[in-house]
Specification:
InterPro entries: LKAAEAR1 (IPR029152). 62% of the residues lie in helices and 0% in strands. It is an all-alpha fold. Among the domains are: 47 residues; 64 residues.
Length: 175
């Protein structure tokens, strides 16, 4: 047993490396079947030129990985733009949610109000009083806006009539 307490199979970097129990000569190795030979060589140290090629490949792969990470990192300007777009989108979503909550509350209020008015109408002692209350207080508010239904020409005509104090515009003598 070695003095440092490690087995002979351990490499200098502390990792376990599997090795063949028996060593074969070159002649015995060439007499093996291809599968047995590949199994045997899998646990042997690779030749010097193969080890160098493996090391070069490993370093090349590490460099490629570093380059990919650097190319995938967003630039500070792009990152700020992404954050700004994200915050704008979040703001729009919050505004839409607030509008939806208001709409739902308005619909619920109108439905409750209509239900209460219908109940009041149904509780009237006579049908005449119920009809009168229904005419005065409709269950659903009328959505027809009492806005202006005149176009620009009609509006100009009405304004001319209103401004005419002597009544010359609408008073016509048929004589």
């Amino acid at each position: 047993m070695p003095a440092n307490g490690k087995d002979a199979d351990d490499s200098s970097d502390g990792k376990f490396k599997a090795k063949n129990k028996k060593t074969l000569t070159q002649r015995e190795l060439s007499n093996l079947a291809p599968q047995e030979r590949s199994k045997y060589l899998a646990y042997e140290e690779p030749p010097k030129h193969v080890a160098e090629a493996m090391a070069k490949t490993k370093t090349r792969l590490l460099e490629m990985k570093k380059e990919q990470k650097q190319s995938l990192k967003p630039r500070p300007i792009e990152e700020e733009l992404d954050k700004e777009k994200h915050s704008k989108l979040i703001g729009q979503l919050k505004a839409a949610e607030a509008r939806n909550r208001l709409r739902v509350m308005r619909l619920r209020y109108n439905a409750n109000r209509a239900e209460e008015i219908k109940h009041l109408i149904a509780c009237q002692p006579t049908s005449l009083k119920a009809v009168r209350l229904q005419a005065l207080v409709p269950p659903y508010p009328e959505n027809s806006k009492s806005g202006d239904n005149l176009d620009s020409m009609q509006r100009e005509r009405v304004e001319n009539i209103l401004e005419d104090e002597k009544g010359l515009t609408i008073c016509r003598d048929l004589s």
